[in-house]
Amino acid sequence: MALEKFSTWIFYISVLLVIATMYTVAFVNRKELSVHEVLTNLAYDNITKTIFIGGENVLLKASENLAEHKRQATGPNLDYVDCYHDLGGTCAGENRNNVNKLLLIDSSKRRLIVCGSFNHGVCQIRSLDTLEVETNGTDYVVSSVPLQAEALITPSVKSSGTRAIYVATSWDKKYFKNPLNFLNPALSTRVIDELMNIFKPVKDDSSKSYIQYKENVVYYAKFIYAFSAGIFNYFVSVQQTTESYKKCNGACSVDQAIFKTFIVRVCQEDEVYASYMELPLDCKGSNGTSFNIAQSAYLTKAGDGLAVDGSEDVLVVTFFKADQGWSGPSQSSAVCIFSVKEIKTALVSNLKNCVNNAPDEEISLPWFPTHVLACEKEQSTPTITENFCPTSTFYAYHPFRGKTPLTKRSVMQYEKGMLTAVAAMPYYNHTVIFAGTDSGQLLKFSVEDEQQQVDPYSELKISSDEVRRIIVTSNQQHLYILSKHKVTKLPVEDCSTSESCDRCTKPNDPFCGWCTLYKRCSQKTSCPSADAHPLRYVTEPSNCPLFASISPEKVPHGPSIELTVKVSNVPPLAGLKCFVNGKEQKPTTVGPGNELKCQTPPEKDLPSITSDTGDVWVDLALYSTESQLLFLVKKLAFYSCPAIKGCINCAEGNYSCNWCTYLGRCTSNSSVDCQGEFIMPPQERAADSKGCPQIIADKSLFVPAQVNTSISVPAKNLPPEKGVASYKCVVTVDGSRKTSVAYRISDTELKCSPLEYFYKASIKKQEVKLEVIFRNSDVLYTPNTFKVYLYKCWVSITDCSSCHVEADADYQCGWCKSVSKCVVQKACGEGGAWIPPTSRCLTKPNISKVWPLTGPVTGGTEIEIHGSDLGKNFDNIKDSVMVAGMKCYPDQTKYQPSKRIFCNTSNSTGPLSGPVSVKVNKIEGKSKQLFSYQIPEPIDFNPKKGPRSGGTTVKIAGLKMNTGRHITAMVAGRKCVVDRAKVTNNSISCTISRAFSRRKRNAVNASTGVTVSFDGFTPTGPRGIFVFTPDPTVTSIEPDEVFFGGGLMLRISGTNLDTIQKPRMYLAYFSPNGTTKLNITVQECESKSSTLMECLSPKVPDFVGNVSKVQVQFLMDADIPLRSNYTSLTMIPNPFFEHFEDNLFVLKTENLILEV
User: Fold this and answer.
1) What is the pLDDT of residue 1000?
2) Which one of 96, 315, 570, 1040 counts the least CB within 10 Å of its CB?
3) One domain, residues 913 and 958
4) Residue 949 in contact with residue 981, Cβ under 8 Å?
5) Before 405, cis peptide (omega within 30)?
6) Confidence class of residue 391 from pLDDT cuts 50, 70 and 90?
7) What is the C-alpha to C-alpha distance for residues 144 and 121, in angstroms, rounded to an integer?
8) What pLDDT is stored for residue 403 in this prediction?
9) Peptide bond into 1022 cis (omega under 30)
10) Is beta strand 1041-1043 parallel, antiparallel or unpaired with respect to 1128-1132?
11) Residue 2, SS3 per DSSP
12) Element (H, E) at 722
């Protein structure tokens, strides 16, 4: 038992140390760059290891460890989103954020390509060093739609060797009609190497190097990934299905349309998109569910387990399921893997079906300018090969969408949300996949066989926002992870956090294995001679090295003896040494079957024994002369019977020791030390032999305080008293020990002689410590579950009913009538008239408080009655509560025995008053307070108008307004929340509820009156109507510059400003590190008229001194924001004054004009 306790503590300490180490290593290895701007794109320079980050109105350059080096603002800008440009002032412009949509490094020319949402998606060439603009494009490339664009730079015409940038982009409804319907091709080939024609289409005459949707066709598509393989460029897209397009006929919104995932392919030699083909991709879940919407994708080389040959490219795609729309959210996602070879084969198969005149195949897509043609109507029969690449528009079968999808079974399903980003890499036999989620998690999982579904082997929290992009560095050592406001750098593996073989190999992390002789978790390449023997580097828990056996298992603390040690899963034993307690033990000999023999240290070289268990633990370890490390360690116990304290540790422990019952000592030679009077270990006992005496924890003991009481203690194996070997009880209360003689009733029961026990605290019960001592020194073993409590019946009890109802079943409490106190019977005395819980109390109910004290004559008021002796159960009072002589109906769900009754009044014939009475067991108690039935009279209210959004506090005046418990009000058809604490006999105040939606605000047009209800009774009145006015607005602020020190009077012009009772304003700004939006203390304003209000500008804290602008926000009543056309103020330094020299300044001029 002692050994088990020790092992448990060692386990908990080990777990804590491992967790602490894991968090420390993870923190050290993680690098982060946080900003307040919204981030959208990420690019990694393989040459300089530099990171480029694009976001909303910002472009950043950072080092490989994410130290910010450069920052360029890219917006906001004046933009014309509904036309080509200003068009002579006929098109309204507005300040718009510039969202980065494309960020691409042109490695061969060492430059950065940047495209944003500004000006319908024009692009720029920027310097990789400074981020400065080098060339501005003028063509509209990626649109202003807030969906990502994808691009890649590849050869454009194979024979000439020129390059082009291929761009795929998305659009919304405004681009489907004039004047914007020819701005943004879905897919285009653009000039990249000629500065004069930069970003222009390679061809834009009768033959066009782009695919564009025809005029006035509403067709939805978005692109999520682009890659090149061989002579082809591929784009992963999500598009409206042909069936959905035909059914909608241009009238569906994105959320109503039905979508599928398609991969688009174009030949790099094809400048006119004659080779444009589409193939549907389908990802099937384990139960046959079709995941139809691709969310992210990544091209990688396959690990050896997936690759047909060592260089096969595979496309990893994350999907989710959506019956309509393409945005989610979804709680179920999946990952599928498509090899590029499979994609090429499926495209060829679909096209061959068409060329071979399959009657159900069609040539063109639903959006193509010409009508849809059936394959069988074409007469040409081109030869279709794997690398078929038509380059002329005379080729008839284009653009082509395959009908038969490429379907794959998912390799992983995720049921906690959406997989929003993905990256992958090969590692030996594994294809390792890193997936980000919409909740900011990073999942890691490994695929060897795509026919088997896998689970993540690691899940890390990256951000509170969705993961948007993941990049694997060129050396495949690190990940860069983009989230909404942060970029994070992590190693692809964190093997070093695992400090044991078991923890290293259990997660099935493909990067990690246990380097046996070097006692570390690492990648295989970091383990010396890992392939020299299978057990030098192991990846399965079953192959972890361990001590198979040690003989003898328990070593006496004394002379040196020989240990025989057998080990498993250890490489050949040559070069190994045996260490005990940190010292080499010679000689160490190697026997057959992984067996070693080594000597234990003599007693003088071992630590002394200080524990009650009589043992000391030291390390038994194997030492490798190759690694010069103790690579395998196990705790070994050395014991001494005479050093063991207590019978349980001795005879019930882990060693072959005996306990001398009447001598009170542990021995290994009981036949000599205490013949016939000893207790043996369990494994040596006869069937009728007894073990150590000990207390049994079958139930808790409850002992009444302040009463002379004996205590019966359950036990087992109690030896008879003999000579001085007797028993006593020791009870420790509040640090004080009280000792009493104890008597052995039997071998299973002990009784402590009567004593009176006290505890100071005014609480119902208090746990105390009870010890049973034998021979004046041996404390009987007491399990931790054995509990003894002292209790006081009278704490928090003031009446008989509470005494009976609230006393614990384990207590022996009753009501002592002579002293009016809840006590045990013994404390009440012989003639004290003690009433047990099974008897009636027959005491008078006492009513101390009644609320409310008024109610309408129609009844229905819920009254709360407080007191004592208000019945022991609901049946005692259910028909015996009266209010002013009228019946009141108790609520059983709210009844609190003896202390509280809730009842609902019945109606009365008219106004009247009287006490509240409760009758229990025919004994009646009455309240001193009187309850009144009355009729409230609302007369008038103010104000008579307020804004539609609500928040106005209305005061309703009248007579007897403080009537009933629940008072509600309606103002012009809207709920008005009553502040019950402020209700008086003469008035009620209520606040008109807020209208959150525009529809509800616009629906408030009528001007109607005010009604008040008192516990369901609605009297007539008050007179007058309440008018809802349009919400106030702010049209100007003067001045628009304010001091940091505050105190400047601002004149706020607007409309309906006099309908705000307590107008307020506050300023908002970003914290110095730019990550947190902070508010400056709210400042009260004053309405001067319907068009004017005045506010003092608040003081801006000193640390905001680098802020040039702050946001200003006005609040109406109830903290409702007020609509304002002015949202910012300019911050200027505080004015200062300089003293005149000699207190005099002479101004030499003919005219002196002072302007104020």
Assistant:
1) 47
2) 1040
3) no
4) no
5) no
6) confident
7) 6
8) 87
9) yes
10) parallel
11) helix
12) none
Over residues 455-467, the pLDDT tens digits come to 999 999 999 999 9
Exposed/middle/buried for 899, CB within 10 Å: 0-12, 13-18, 19+? buried
The reply to whether 950 and 919 lie within a common domain is no
**Does 662 lie in the same domain as 597?**
no
pLDDT higher than threshold 80 for residue 173: no
Residue 349, SS3? helix
In angstroms, rounded to a whole number, what is the distance separating the alpha carbons of residues 235 and 240?
A: 16
Q: Is residue 661 part of a domain?
A: yes
Run of H or E including 1081: none
Q: Which amino acid is at 656?
A: S
Of the listed ranges 9-23, 939-953, 1106-1120, the least confidently predicted one is 9-23
**pLDDT for res 1070:** 65
Residue 925 belongs to domain with CATH number: 2.60.40.10
Nearest in space to 399 (alpha carbons), one of 247, 219, 264, 571: 264
Per-residue confidence (pLDDT) for residue 999, from 0 to 100: 46
In a domain, 290, yes or no: no
Dist CA 344 CA 267 (whole Å): 12
| Confidence band for 385, pLDDT divided at 50, 70 and 90 | confident
pLDDT of amino acid 1017: 96
Domain count, the chain: 8
pLDDT higher than 70, residue 498 = yes
Same domain, 1055 and 1095: yes
Between CA 169 and CA 626 the distance in angstroms is 60
Chain centre to alpha carbon of residue 180: 43
Instruction: Please list, in sequence order, all residues whose beta carbon lies within 8 angstroms of the beta carbon of residue 862, skipping any fewer than 6 positions away.
Output: 891, 902, 903, 904, 965, 966, 1015
User: Using 50, 70 and 90 to split pLDDT, how confident is the model at 7?
Assistant: very low
- 1129 and 1037: one domain? yes
Position 73 scores a pLDDT of 93
Neighbours of 1112 (CB within 10 A): 23
Looking at 1062-1115, list the stretches that DSSP marks H as alpha helix, in order from N- to C-terminal side. Answer: none
Cα 427 to Cα 304: distance, rounded to the nearest angstrom: 8
Report the distance separating Cα 617 and Cα 580, nearest Å. Answer: 10
Pairing of strands 967-971, 974-978: antiparallel
CA dihedral sign of residues 1047, 1048, 1049, 1050: negative
Has residue 47 been placed in a domain?
no
Whether 925 and 868 map to the same domain: the answer is: yes
What CA–CA distance (Å, rounded) separates 184 from 212?
7
Lowest-confidence range among 72-86, 862-876, 1002-1016, 1019-1033?
1002-1016
Q: Where would I find the H helices in 457-573?
A: 501-505
C-alpha–C-alpha distance, residues 1156 and 1146, integer Å: 20
Q: Which amino acid is at 442?
A: L
Q: How far is CA 863 from CA 872, 897, 910, 982, 1016, in A?
A: 20, 16, 18, 19, 14
Q: What pLDDT sits at residue 213?
A: 65
Mean pLDDT of 601-610: 93
Structure tokens given for 905:
């009044």
Tell me the residue range of the domain where 754 lies: 706-791
Other beta carbons within 10 Å of 1029: 17
Domain identity same for 649 and 574: no
Q: Which pLDDT does position 27 carry in this prediction?
A: 46
d(CA 916, CA 85): 82
Check residue 14 and give its pLDDT.
Answer: 42
Q: Which residue has the higher pLDDT, 102 or 381?
A: 102
Can you give the pTM of this predicted structure? 0.66
- Could you give the CA distance from residue 703 to residue 270 in angstroms, rounded to a whole number? 96
- Check whether 884 has a pLDDT greater than 50: yes
* 426 Cβ contact partners less than 8 Å away, ≥ 6 residues apart: 300, 301, 302, 303, 304, 307, 432
Question: So what's the pLDDT on residue 1003?
Answer: 46
Q: Confirm whether 647 is domain-assigned.
A: yes
Name residue, tokens 């299973």.
748
Give me the pLDDT at residue 1156, please.
41
- Of 725, 756, 791, which one is at a domain's C-terminal end? 791
**Residue 923 and residue 859 in one domain:** yes
